[in-house]
Structure formats: structure tokens, C-alpha cells
Amino acid sequence: MAPSSSPGTPAAPTTPAAPAVHRHPEPADLPEPLPEPGVAELRLEAVLGALSDPLRLHIVRALLLDSDAFDHSCSWFGLDRPKSSLTHHFRSLREAGVTRQRQYGLERRSQVRIDDLEARFPGLLALVANWTPKEG
Description:
alpha+beta; globular
């Protein structure tokens, strides 16, 4: 029988289960990634700086939780922003080492560097996955 808490004693907080991060196998014959820092070069301050912007945090969370493919183009996110603004945000994520981008003709496709980030900063992506965006 489970121990009960006595009156006046707060119950232990329950931690919600982490949302499932979607991992997809890497297809064959991928283009080379655009320039990015190596795993050993990933810096926490750069990663946190990239994730400090709510739009970039939304992008990474969507890639982690809502992805149905290995990587996605900018249009997949349905963001109503100028192309130049989106280019800036995706470049910031790539240069910080959060995402990997590949060029497919005129289109750049992004994916989160899950294994690299987990190796360098264990638990960071679980925090991103558990983040709840503000409404409105």
C-alpha cells in the first residue's frame, strides 16, 4: 500500500512525462550539411542564446515533437514572417549548433542535432520539448 501524506503535508509534485521526441532515420545520399560547429565546439552560451528567442524555440520544439520527416523546409512551419527574418532565425540556430541544414536546390531543410546536443548538454532538449508556448 502506498504511503499517504498526513494532513498539512503537501503531496510530492508529479512530473509530467516528457513528450516523445520524433527521431527519423537518416536517408541515403544526403547533401553535405552547411557549415556548423563540431560537437566539441558546441558552447552552452551560444545554444542558449539561440534558444532565447521565442520563435527559434518554437521552431526547435516543432522539429522535435511534430516532425513527420527527417528534415523540413522553412515553409513546413507555416510562419507568417518575411523570408529575410526566417533566414536570420534558421541561420542563428545552425551557427549555434542547434540545427543542421542542408541545401536541396533552392531550398534549405533543417533538423535538430539531437544526438550531438544530448552528448554535449544532456537533458537540454527535454526542457525544450516540455516548454509550453504562451498563448496569444
